[in-house]
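Much of the work behind modern protein science is quiet bookkeeping, done one molecule at a time. Below is the pair of lines this work produces for a single protein:

***
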Amino acid sequence: MDEHAVIHWVDAYEVAWGNNDPDQIGALFTEDAVYYTEPFGEPWRGRAAIVAGWLENRDEYGTWDFDEKVLAVAGDLAFVQGETVYMEPTTKTYHNLWVIRLDEEGQCSEFTEWWMLAPELPG
């Protein structure tokens, strides 16, 4: 895997995030993938559970903006730094670190998202 493959996967993730299309979501992940919505929580296990969990927690298109930067790629493992700004119902900014493990076909077999709410700056 190289940085180009990671960028391709992240771009596809953003499209699926915007569309909330079950087929697009599922295509991102291997059949037996695990998706940690937080580093130490119980993950969604398997493509079907990932799609279901994603749709239960969906963000509606147009309510967020995401920027990313690939920090490193080591073998099948990639680290992506992101910033997500939600505009609705109120503006909130989250800083993200994604740990992504891709297989030879470019599908994700393990995904962990670390996120923190940015503090609100005074006036």
